[in-house]
Amino acid sequence: MEKTLKQNEIDALFEAARSAAPDAQRPEVRARVVPYNFSSAGQISTDQLRAISMLNDLFARNLTHNLAAWLRTRFQVNLVSAEQIQFNEFLLRIPEISYVASVRLEPLGALSVLQLDLALAPPVIDLLLGGEGKDGLLRELTDIEESILGSVVEIICRELTAAWQPVGLSFNFERRQMQTQVARIMSVTEKTLCLSFEIRMPHSSGLLNLAFPAVVANTILRRLTSDWGRRRRHAGETRARMEAAARRIRFGGSLQLPTVRLAASMIENLEPGMVLRLDLPANTLPVWQVGGQPMSEAQAIRQGLHRGARIERRIGEAKG
Question: Rounded mean pLDDT of the chain?
Fold first, then answer.
């Protein structure tokens, strides 16, 4: 008697035949092998780059506020890049006329390199000498100008120390280095951590570059990996206490008229009782400044036995 198979039985036979096929007939899956590039070892990971960017964004903001208040002009600092390159490549990026200084990093005792475009020097020096921050010719600095720019580099190192406090490094300005001496600070083949910042002023712009040797870069990256990743947001109660403590901080404030320029002869001949003409409109309001930052226009008033300031409008608001 001939047996007729049903469709579901036929499908079951085909499935059993496929599962019993020898391994030799199955397509071979091979692992993908690619050549390893040893020069890429030790590259900055995404998490490390994010932590480095956060630290240096803090440095850029602090330097922007402090130097803008010190120079009394618009001053903007922005992080451009963070990368690992050989020191020789960093040297090739340094312009022929440039300000290069060695910075000692404690407690490691290692030297890093700070390079500042000299296009920024004329407006900074002009501002500190009482000028308007005009741009100047690109040339080598005099001894006096170099001393003035050295004070700016010391402020940069101070702000770097404050920003990099989480990794326990202190930046100490050592001295300016000539172009021929920079290559002796570290091996030209050494892999360095290079940070680049763009600095913008009303009449000029330029770059601030920092190069850290491998021993410093490795220490920074290890601490960022182990410490930065474990940080968590403060609990609500702790955050409330911090905000309450921050509100008790006292800032220096002043109520003063806008800056005016006076001839030296007028200042030299001043005597008690003389009226000094400031060449300002009679309706000019004094400016209320806090921590060197202009906040509002205000009127000087008396409140009981004390002087006071009546706020008229915030800086930047349209006059009603």
Answer: 80
First-residue to last-residue Cα distance in the chain: 108
pLDDT greater than 50 at residue 258: yes
Residue 239, token pair as written in the block: 């955050």
Which segments of the chain belong to CATH 3.40.1550.10?
A: 46-229
Q: What is the DSSP string of 55-94?
A: HHHHHHHHHHHHHHHHHTS--EEEEEEEEEEEHHHHHHHS
Summarize pLDDT for 97-108 with one digit per residue, the tens.
889 999 998 888
Please give the CATH number for the structural domain made up of 46-229.
3.40.1550.10
Give the alpha-carbon dihedral of 147, 150, 154, 160, to 10 degrees. 170
Backbone angles phi, psi at 40, to 5 degrees: -85, -5
Residue closest to 136 by CA, chosen among 204, 75, 198: 204
Q: How many CB atoms lie within 10 A of CB 76?
A: 15
pLDDT of 275 strictly over 80: yes
Maximum Cα–Cα distance across the chain: 137
User: Which of 92, 105, 80 lies closest to 208, judged by CA?
Assistant: 80
Q: Is the dihedral of CA 216, 217, 218, 219 positive or negative?
A: positive
C-alpha closest to that of 170 among 109, 98, 245, 241: 109
Cα torsion through 61, 66, 67, 73, rounded to 10: 90
What pLDDT is attached to residue 3? 53
Indicate the residue type of 265: S
Sheet order of strands, 170-177 included: 76-86, 191-201, 204-212, 110-117, 98-106, 170-177
Token pair of 167 as six digits? 């990794």
Contacts (Cβ under 8 Å, ≥6 apart) of 25: none
CA 10 to CA 87: how far, in whole Å? 72
Q: What's the order of all strands across the beta sheet hosting 253-256?
A: 253-256, 287-290, 293-303, 306-314
